[in-house]
């Protein structure tokens, strides 16, 4: 009989403990942090022109892209992802209040997928996000993302720091992995720690479906400080890919290494230089699709292109210190061409 009496008590206790363990009460409440930072988050709408070869010849296509960004300075500086704005002909910025203004790119790191843009006007209602020290983040800490997934402005998603991914290729890069929901429209948006400090900028996801599968990557704010905020602004307005070896030979480039121009932004320094974009998409086994038919940059000023960390640093240092006209040597249609323009 004692066992019969004790069983309901055991069951009640088990249910009570189970509720405690499964309850979300342990999760950090980020509502106050969200209120603190939401007016610093903006939505970006860009217009991009592309050229492609078709049966009708070279045609131009105009497309509109959606992304997010975050205000980090009272002078109107906004951080976002490079792939959102790097080729933009125009950028429209929408604030939480519904007010809009235009902006222009002033600095971009295409390889690290981060960019800095300058607002033409700053409304009184906005706030400024403070920058964290992302080196202090630990795997397992909670963080939250604000953005415009599928156009749903100022949407909050919460997750964890799932890992750190450090790459030491042409430049040193660090991305924070997160399981916070990230979808189309989140690109360039901020990720915050639970105190509402900016820890990174949303870059990309890994997905077999095209939507969020819990594997997102965010450019760390300390990397952004090093690449953009602590260096002279630099933006050329072109997408380029490094080529060498067999690929360079396949494209009949009379140099072992170079930078193949993919696309060029209208009104950008690259367009003013006269850089020609690729016009014909091709598929290369074992590599990403590329555009061919454009210029291959062989030399920047006195520095030949070498697809290595030292080679990239030489070119970057030259560009950051160059005061006079910029000189590029390109391989175009079987000929060497020298281009001159403003840096």
TrEMBL record:
Protein name: S1C family serine protease
InterPro entries: Chloro_Bact_Ser_Proteases (IPR051201), PDZ_sf (IPR036034), Peptidase_S1_PA (IPR009003), Peptidase_S1C (IPR001940)
Natural source organism: Litoribrevibacter euphylliae
GO term, biological process aspect, one: proteolysis
Pfam families: Trypsin_2
Record keywords: Hydrolase, Protease, Signal
Annotated signal peptide: 1-27
Class of enzymatic activity (EC top level): hydrolase
PROSITE patterns in the record: PROKAR_LIPOPROTEIN
Top-level taxon in the UniProt lineage: Bacteria
Gene Ontology MF terms: peptidase activity
EC number: 3.4.21.-
Hydrolase among keywords: yes
């Amino acid at each position: 009989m004692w066992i019969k009496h004790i069983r309901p008590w055991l069951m009640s206790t088990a249910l009570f403990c189970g509720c405690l363990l499964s309850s979300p009460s342990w999760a950090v409440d980020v509502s106050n942090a969200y209120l603190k930072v939401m007016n610093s988050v903006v939505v970006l709408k860009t217009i991009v022109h592309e050229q492609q070869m078709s049966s009708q010849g070279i045609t131009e296509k105009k497309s509109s892209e959606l992304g997010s960004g975050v205000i980090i300075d009272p002078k109107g500086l906004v951080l976002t992802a490079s792939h959102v704005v790097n080729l933009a002909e125009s950028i429209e910025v929408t604030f939480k209040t519904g007010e809009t203004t235009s902006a222009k790119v002033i600095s971009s790191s295409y390889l690290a997928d981060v960019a800095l843009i300058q607002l033409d006007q700053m409304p009184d209602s906005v706030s400024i996000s403070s920058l964290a020290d992302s080196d202090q983040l630990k795997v397992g800490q909670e963080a939250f993302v604000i953005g415009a997934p599928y156009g749903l402005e100022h949407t909050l998603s919460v997750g964890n720091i799932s890992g750190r991914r450090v790459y030491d290729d042409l430049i040193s890069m660090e991305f924070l992995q997160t399981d916070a929901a990230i979808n189309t429209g989140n690109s360039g948006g901020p990720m915050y720690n639970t105190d509402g400090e900016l820890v990174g900028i949303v870059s990309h996801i890994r997905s077999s479906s095209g939507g969020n599968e819990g594997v997102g990557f965010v450019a760390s704010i300390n990397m952004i400080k090093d690449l953009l905020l602590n260096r002279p602004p630099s933006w050329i307005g072109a997408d380029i890919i490094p080529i060498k070896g067999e690929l360079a030979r396949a494209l009949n480039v009379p140099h072992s290494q170079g930078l193949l121009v993919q696309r060029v932004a209208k009104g950008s320094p690259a367009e003013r230089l006269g850089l020609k974009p690729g016009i014909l998409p091709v598929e290369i086994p074992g590599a990403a699709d590329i555009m061919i038919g454009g210029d291959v940059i062989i030399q920047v000023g006195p520095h030949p292109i070498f697809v290595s960390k030292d080679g990239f640093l030489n070119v970057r240092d030259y560009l950051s210190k160059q005061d006079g006209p910029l000189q590029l040597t390109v391989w175009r249609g079987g000929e060497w061409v020298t281009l001159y323009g403003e840096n």
